[in-house]
Amino acid sequence: MAALAASRRLLLLLRPELEPCLRSRALNPCSGRARWAGGLRRAPPLVSCRRDFSDEGSAYAAKNSAPDEQFLQLSLDEGEGDGVVPGISESVVKDAKKSAIELLAVRAYSVSELRKKLCGKNYSADTVDSVIADFKSRGLLNDGYYAESFSRSRWQSSTWGPRRIKQALRQKGVPEAEADQATRSVFQDDRGDEDQASHGFSEASMDHLFAQASKQWLRGSSLPMEKRRARIVRWLQYRGFSWGVTNSIIRKLEAQHPP
C-alpha cells in the first residue's frame, strides 16, 4: 500500500496533468481500488525538499518500499522523448530516469548527490545531465528547498548551528549561496532586532538554543563552575555556533541557573 501510494505521488510529480485520470481510476469500483474513494491529494511540487529529514534525507515512502512498476512505466512512457539530448538513446535516458525515480522514492537528494548516484550506475555524463535537467525543470530537484529543509531539520532535531549545517551542505554539493540563504531563513526572521544583527539569530532561535543548552547545563550541576562552563562551550562549538552566540548563552545560563 505504501509503495503504491508513493508511486502515485511520484507519477503526479512527473506528470501532474494525469491527476484527473488517476482520480477517476481511484473512484472506479471496478478498478479494484475503491478504497481510494477519498481521491488523490496532489503532492507538493517539491516533496523531495520540503519533508522532514532522517539521518540521510527525507523519505518519500516507507523505508525499503519500491515504487509500483506499473506507475513507473506509465510515468516514463508519458515523458518519453522529453529532454533527450541528440545522440543519446531514448531507452538509456528512460532507464536512467527510472533509476533516479527509485532513488528519490527512498530519500531526498541534492543535485550533486543524485548526479553521483547516477554516474555510479555507469550512465554517461550526457545521459545524467539530461535526467538532471529534466528533473530540475519538473521541480523534483531544487537545491534551495533541499538546503532549507535540511537546515531546519538539523536545527530542530539535533540543535546544529549555521556553521555545521553549511559544512554538511557543502559536502552534499549544495552551492554556498543556497546554503547561506537556507540558514538565514531558518535562524533569522524579518524583525531585524539588535540581537539578530549582532549574532545572526532571531529571538525565537536564541530561545530555542537556550532551552537546549539549559538541559546540558543542568546535567552538569555537580561539576565545578569552570568545568561546567567548558562543557557547554564544547557542546555549542561542536554544533557550529559562533563565539558570540556561545558567550551570550553562557552568560544567560549563569544568570538564570546560578551554582
From TrEMBL:
Extent of Basic and acidic residues compositional bias: 187-197
Alphabetical UniProt keywords: Cytoplasm
Main location class: cytoplasm
Keyword Cytoplasm: yes
GO biological process, one term: regulation of DNA repair
Domain RecX third three-helical: 206-249
Top-rank taxon, per record: Eukaryota
Region Disordered: start-end pairs: 172-199
Family note: Belongs to the RecX family.
Protein name: Regulatory protein RecX
